[in-house]
Amino acid sequence: MKRALLLIAIVFVIALVLYQIEPVKQTTNNLIASTTTVSLLDRDSLTIKSRVNLPEGYKRAIYPKGSFQEYLRNYKLKPFGTKIINYDDSEYFWQRGHIGVLEIPVPKNGLQQCADALIRIRSEYLWDNNRKDEIGFNFTSGHYCSWTEYAKGFRPKINGNKVSFNKTASENHSKENFYKYLNLIYMYSGTLSLYNELPKITDINNLKLGDMLIKGGSPGHIVMVCDEAVNANGDKIYLLFQGNTPAQSVHLVKNLEDSQFSPWYHLEKDAVIPVSNYTFYDSKFVRFK
Questions:
Q1: Is 30 contained in some domain?
Q2: What residue numbers bound the domain in which 130 lies?
Q3: Is 13 a member of any domain?
Q4: 141 within some domain
């Protein structure tokens, strides 16, 4: 009898621990979300825009060709069912919160975490569109570090919160050196620096692709709006993708709270917004300059 009671107690404790580490609790409605979501997914498609269909009555927002917004919604995806992989090639423990993995490499150095992944995507867009002089980010200390100065050979000397830049390297404008620059940014920038540096979105009606839902801090988190649709009443819905900590595959997230529209989200300022492994309790939005 005592052994049976002990076994029951052990099973209960294990179940309680597993329940607590699950990023987002799934309700009964969540469990049937797959039947609703199937019609909104094209599993054979390999871009964000083509992977996710529109709910009835909605049309995609129109953005200029060549814009950052069109770049994001046409970002390439790996085949449906691809797992989220950590920087060390291990599988992330939570595989039920995404419907797509973006075709973006995860460096083995572990530096490309949540904010860093979005910094990379923005920087690669500027690089590919011959806008390299716009690539630059603040360190958490507030000091600005631009790609153009880094390419000329200027490197930061960091002593606590004091930063100075000196020419200590040869001029190098190569793509390989560009990624070395990004590694530097990953080390000294993050959600807190982005929140302090970037313009805030004060009117949720002005939210657009490329804007970011952010909690600045240590730890903090950040996700990016990567598609937008609107109906005749002006109601807007959005898709979100994210990187994570530990550094891992950038992925297009499900909406585990709204089975009717998943993976689309209704977004509100100052609201509670859960994503697949994080909850924003006082939602704030920022925009790249």
A1: no
A2: 46-286
A3: no
A4: yes
**pLDDT tens column, 46-81:** 999 999 999 999 999 999 999 999 999 999 999 999
Answer yes or no: is pLDDT of 161 > 90.
Answer: no
pLDDT at residue 9, as a whole number: 42
Instruction: Please give the helix or strand (H or E) that residue 163 lies within, else none.
Output: strand 162-167
- Are 87 and 106 in contact by the 8 Å Cβ rule? The answer is yes
How high does pLDDT run on average in the chain? 88
Nearest to 284 by CA among 229, 219, 202, 225: 202
Residue environment code for 108-130, b if the CB has 16+ CB neighbours within 10 A, otherwise e: eeebbbbbbbbbbbbbbbbeeee
**Tokens 């621990």 label which residue?**
17
- Tell me: the pLDDT tens digits for 75-116? 999 999 999 999 999 999 999 999 999 999 999 999 999 999
Count Cβ atoms below 10 Å from residue 201 Cβ, excluding itself: 20
Between 34 and 177, where is the model more confident? 177
What single DSSP character describes residue 217? S
Domain assignment present for residue 12? The answer is no
List, in sequence order, every beta strand (DSSP E) within 202-247.
212-215, 221-231, 236-242
| Amino acid at the residue 116 | D
Task: Give the residues across from 241 on adjacent strands.
Answer: 224, 252
Question: How many domains, the chain?
Answer: 1
Name residues whose C-beta falls within 8 Å of residue 124's C-beta, 6 or more positions apart in sequence. Answer: none
pTM equals 0.86
Rounded to 5 degrees, what are φ and ψ at 61?
-65, 145
Q: Which two tokens stand for residue 46?
A: 């390999």
Alpha carbon of residue 141 to chain centroid: 23
